[in-house]
Structure formats: C-alpha cells, structure tokens
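Run log // design_07
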C-alpha cells in the first residue's frame, strides 16, 4: 500500500501551468520564475532570494537543484521535504490550501551558515497573487 502511494506522489506529479525553480546555495534559496518568454530556465527568468510566492489551491511544480552541497527543501506546513543534490534537478510539487506566510528552512546541515538558511513561502489568494505578480514579475530588472 505505501509503495503505491509513494509512487503516485513522487513519480506522477500532476499537470500544472505553474512551474518555478528553486536552487539551494550556501546559504540561501534562489527562487526563479519564468520571465516574459514564459519558459523556465532561460535568461529572462525573474529571480528572488528566499521568498517563494504562490497562489492558493494551485499545483506548484518545483524544479529543485543545488549549486554547491546537499540542501533540503522543507515546507513543514505542507509536509514536504526533498533533498537538493548538486548536479541533479529533482521535480517536486505541492498545493497549498490555506493563504499565509510559512517558513522555508533548509533541513540538511549544509555548512557554517546553515542555521541562517531560511526563506518564506507566501501563499496568496488569487487576487493577491495577481497583484504581486504584476508588481514583481513583469518589471523586475536583473
């Protein structure tokens, strides 16, 4: 029973039009949103340090990576934890069902600054997210 549940969750991420990149590096999270071309992983991606903004009740697909050592992407309120491994990109997903601000710590000892490696997950109502995106994604200079 648990094997089939694990496979369903880990291997079959639901479809979503909301994808972003999260890269761990000593000692912060780099969050990347697709830029004007609508494609993740291109030069026009819009990047932030430590702040992850998503709409409520939306499947979010995260392409997780590390630039240096093993980090662990941890959203305790969503019961999601996944190691970020150098040289690999790992797809994880979540769907936050309650608006709010939630902690995003690294849960893998990753060096002397590990205790300060903390970001935030901001879960917005659709209207709040639209406003945030208009103010931050469309015109943010690199």
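design_07 sequence
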């Amino acid at each position: 029973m648990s094997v089939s549940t694990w496979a369903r969750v880990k291997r079959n991420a639901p479809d979503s039009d909301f994808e972003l990149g999260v890269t761990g590096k000593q000692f912060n999270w780099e969050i990347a949103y697709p830029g004007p071309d609508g494609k993740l992983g291109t030069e026009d991606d819009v990047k932030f340090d430590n702040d992850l903004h998503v709409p409520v009740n939306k499947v979010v697909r995260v392409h997780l990576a590390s630039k240096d050592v093993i980090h662990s992407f941890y959203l305790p309120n969503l019961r999601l934890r996944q190691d970020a491994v150098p040289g690999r990109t790992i797809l994880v997903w979540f769907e936050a069902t309650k608006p709010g601000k939630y902690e995003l710590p690294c849960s893998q000892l990753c060096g002397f600054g590990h205790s300060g490696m903390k970001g935030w997950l901001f879960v917005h109502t659709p209207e709040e997210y639209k406003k945030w995106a208009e103010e931050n994604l469309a015109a943010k200079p690199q």
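The beta strands are 19-25, 28-33, 46-49, 51-55, 59-66, 71-75, 80-84, 90-95, 100-105, 118-124.
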